[in-house]
Design a protein that fits this description.
By secondary structure, this protein is of the alpha/beta class. Helix content is 33%, strand content 23%. It contains 12 helices and 12 strands. Helix 5 packs across helix 6 and helix 10 runs parallel beside helix 11. It is globular and about 65 Å long. The protein binds adenosine-5'-triphosphate and magnesium ion (MG). Adenosine-5'-triphosphate binds next to strand 1, strand 2 and helix 1. The site of adenosine-5'-triphosphate has 17 residues, from strand 1, strand 2 and helix 1.
Length: 341
């Protein structure tokens, strides 16, 4: 069993708002293997971007690390000085922010923006930076002559490719891509995802792909981490988890999204909305929306339990206290009536 590249242990991040706190991430634990794509998925507001940013330690001013550890290659990132962390950013860990497509500076040509990263952060000469920029554009499937273009001259899909090229500039071991395909149509989504997967395999790197769309995870991710209301509720090998989910939230999320590869199936939304993270409910946070809730669920704190022993860097874990009933719940979850009751 090889050691994971990244181990997130009991990570908690809160935001100070007014005279209260929003507990955006609460005790999150998961691993990212040394090569492969991990999908971090959950509804809007469940803390995905907060985790993504916490991993690079580029967080909003009102964010507070409230506990936990982030081991990258064995080093706890939360214990590094700002200077040490700065050396890891771009170099080892590259981040593509949620609105990367629009965050390219409109007044500079792409070659200027890419060149700046390569020269200032990568220490390359002007000629080397030029050569590397061309290679990066070829890698992401854009003609190198387009380096001279301004961001507005690219389509949305191409801008996303440019953002990927930027992320790859300094040969990172890990790329964190926050909603890289969300604003794109399905065909372009698939092209970008195919390319991200091809690059991941060719370069042997790790990717954390943040998305609210579980079909994106099903399409391209080796592992899945399902988040609900700031907590990880289930994680494991994607195929294992999606064929036989243990947590009702995973079951519900899977019913709620169209399949990227086929257009069949009825979509069943999960009624209600996630809780307010400034005062989350006690016990299982999904209990208020769960069709299988029992009174004890509201009183029992969620803890991840191994549900299957699987080979590989980490097993399949789920935080439902009814893990033992999963087979029966899965059968019920496939009926539309279960979710509209
Ligand atoms: N700077 C901030 N100050 C206060 N609260 C914040 C801040 N950023 C995020 N939050 C809150 O933290 C929670 C988690 O937000 P986050 O952006 O991590 O969610 P997300 O899963 O990425 O959502 P989305 O799918 O909409 O991008 C939400 O309740 C959000 O309102
Ligand atoms: Mg987000």
């Amino acid at each position: 069993m090889t050691a994971p590249l990244l181990s997130i242990r009991d990570l908690s991040v809160s935001y100070v708002v007014g005279n209260g706190m929003v507990h955006a991430v609460d005790g999150a634990t998961f691993d990212v293997p040394a090569a492969g794509i991990v999908g971090l998925v959950g509804e809007s507001g469940c803390g995905k971007s907060t985790i993504a940013r916490a991993l690079t330690r580029v967080v909003p001013k009102n964010a507070r690390f409230a506990g936990g550890e982030i081991f990258f290659d064995g080093t706890d990132l939360l214990k590094l000085s700002e200077g040490e962390m700065n050396r890891l950013r771009w170099g080892d860990i590259a981040f593509i922010p949620q609105s990367a497509m629009n965050s390219l500076d409109p007044v500079y040509r792409i070659e200027t923006q890419l060149g700046e990263v390569l020269r200032q952060r990568g220490g390359l000469s002007k000629a080397e930076a030029r050569e590397k920029s061309e290679a990066l554009f070829e890698l992401v499937g854009i003609e190198p002559r387009r380096l001279r273009d301004f961001p507005h001259q690219f389509s949305g899909g191409m801008r996303q490719r440019v953002a990927i090229a930027l992320a790859l500039a300094l040969d990172p071991k890990l790329i964190i891509a926050d909603e890289p395909v969300t604003a794109l149509d399905v065909i372009v989504q698939r092209q970008i995802l195919d390319q991200l997967q091809a690059l991941q395999q060719r370069l042997g790197i790790s990717v954390i792909l943040v998305t609210h769309d579980i079909s994106v995870v099903a399409y391209v991710c080796d592992r899945i981490v399902v988040m609900y209301a700031g907590q990880v509720v289930e994680s494991g090998d994607t195929r294992t988890v999606l064929t036989a989910p243990y947590h009702p939230y995973t079951m519900g999320l899977y019913n709620a999204f169209p399949d990227l590869q086929s257009s069949q199936g009825i979509l069943t939304p999960i009624e209600g909305s996630p809780p307010d993270l400034s005062a989350p409910p006690s016990g299982c946070r999904f209990a208020p929306r769960c069709p299988f809730v029992e009174p004890e669920c509201r009183a029992t704190e969620m803890v991840l339990h191994e549900v299957e022993i699987v080979d590989g860097p980490a097993g399949h874990v789920s935080a439902c206290r009814r893990n033992g009933d999963a087979e029966m719940l899965r059968a019920k979850a496939s009926e539309v009536a279960t979710w509209s009751a």
